[in-house]
Amino acid sequence: MVAAEVSVVSGGAMATKLLSSDQTLDGPITDPSSFGPSITNVQMADLGGYTVARQLRSIGFEEPIMGLTVSAMPGYKEQYSAAGCSQLERKPVDCTSLLATCKSALQFSRKLPQ
Questions:
Q1: Which whole-number Å values give the CA distances from 75 to 44, 45, 80, 81, 103, in the listed order?
Q2: Tens digit of pLDDT for each residue in 33-52?
Q3: Per-residue pLDDT, 113
Q4: 5 assigned to some structural domain
Q5: pTM of structure
Q6: Could you tell me if residue 7 is inside a domain?
Q7: 76, 11, 99, 107: CA torsion to nearest 10
Q8: How many angstroms separate the CA atoms of 25 and 106, rounded?
Q9: Pair 68, 40: CB distance under 8 Å
Q10: pLDDT number for residue 112
Q11: Domain containing 84: what range?
Q12: Taking Cα atoms as reference points, which of 94, 46, 49, 98 lies closest to residue 69?
């Protein structure tokens, strides 16, 4: 069994502020080693997933970022990848697939033994 600490926030701006040392959208990252992979919704009211991924990358977040989307529009994966996202999962979410993606991301980030 593997345990994880999960932080849940109500939007993209809150996620970005949570990781920044001065609780602003563009402040330096608090401690990169204290956070693992991130899961974000692509379409959020305050900051969309594209913006969140770009913002997290701009403040030094190097962990995998997984996006969740209901859209299957052509080019979506490429756009999200260009914004800094590592993986894109479609909704409705298949829990088995999401857990496998999370495990893979944790192994990539070296937060979980291979």
A1: 19, 21, 9, 10, 26
A2: 677 788 888 877 777 788 88
A3: 46
A4: no
A5: 0.76
A6: no
A7: 90
A8: 25
A9: yes
A10: 45
A11: 12-108
A12: 49
C-alpha distances in Å from residue 56, one per residue of 25, 62, 73, 87, 96: 9, 8, 24, 15, 27
Residue 37 lies in a domain: yes
Strand order of the β-sheet with 87-90 is 38-41, 65-69, 87-90
Say which amino acid occupies 62: E
Which helix (H) or strand (E) covers residue 105, if one does?
Answer: helix 95-108
How many structural domains is the chain composed of?
Answer: 1
pLDDT digits (tens, 9 = 90+) for 1-11: 556 677 888 88
What's the 3-state SS for 48-74?
CHHHHHHHHHHCCCCCCEEEEECCCCC
Confidence of residue 57 (pLDDT cuts 50, 70, 90): confident
Give mean pLDDT, residues 89-101: 84
User: Considering the domain boundaries, does residue 113 fall inside one?
Assistant: no
Per DSSP bridges, beta strands 38-41 and 65-69 are parallel
CATH number reported for the structural domain that contains residue 54 in this entry: 3.40.50.2300
Reduced to 3 states (helix: H, G, I; strand: E, B; else coil), residue 90 is: strand
